[in-house]
Amino acid sequence: MTLVVDHPLARARLTTVRDARTDRPTFRDAVRDLTTMLVYEALRDAPVTETPVTTPVADTVGAELTAPPVLVPVLRAGLGMATAAHAQVPGALMGFVGVARDEETLQPTPYMESLPGDLAGRPVFVLDPMLATGGSMAHTIDLLVARGADDVTAVCVVAAPEGIARLGEQHPDVRIVTATIDERLNESGYIVPGLGDAGDRQFGAM
Ligand SMILES: O=P(O)(O)OC[C@H]1O[C@H](OP(=O)(O)OP(=O)(O)O)[C@H](O)[C@@H]1O
Ligand SMILES: O=c1cc[nH]c(=O)[nH]1
Ligand SMILES: [Mg+2]
């Protein structure tokens, strides 16, 4: 249930976000480009409904997504993925979750949720560039499941094996779409080689 998007263009943008010399505007641009590719691949097998369309030349049959996913960026870092994901699925509903990891305990500290009340039968894409211990993602998915969600995709840029394993235990039905599975977490809970703190690199250190 883990899809690694390793298209050459995704690998090139991943290299940009990994590079410690990349400035904030360039980092944000690369996160947006990666999100476009990740969401594109995440929707590859999405069901479509055929719809009639008239070209300047003839009538034909087109297609539209049968069920556009609800998009849920996880603040802060996931905000940098929101616009690009929304551009891919313009009709999507968007909810928001705020959670900050306590950097001492590595436990997620929730501070905000703004989600549709009923997610039953609706695909949901959680947008967060970093899946490290998996605590923040597991918390977010708990909120979604409490609202009836049963078709959840975690869209990430960098995933650690530890976070993937945790989701496999706590939420085995969740699909993960990521640009890379990295080596491990270090003693501070950062992904190695990773890209550092995705929130700080987009928005500045708090
Ligand atoms: O898998 P975990 O161990 O929970 O770590 C991953 C979380 O850490 C980062 O957010 P952070 O807590 O730094 O908040 P921020 O986006 O506001 O910087 C990242 O965006 C994830 O939400
Ligand atoms: O490497 C990491 C781990 C958690 N959160 C980040 O932003 N980066
Ligand atoms: Mg952060």
UniProtKB/TrEMBL annotation:
Substrates-to-products reaction catalysed: UMP + diphosphate = 5-phospho-alpha-D-ribose 1-diphosphate + uracil
Pfam families recorded: UPRTase
Binding-site residues, uracil: 191, 196-198
Keywords in alphabetical order: Allosteric enzyme, Glycosyltransferase, GTP-binding, Magnesium, Nucleotide-binding, Transferase
UniProt xrefs under InterPro entries: PRTase-like, PRTase_dom, Upp_B, UPRT, UPRTase/APRTase
S-adenosyl-L-methionine among keywords: no
Record family assignment: Belongs to the UPRTase family.
Stated name of the protein: Uracil phosphoribosyltransferase
Organism of this sequence: Actinomycetospora endophytica
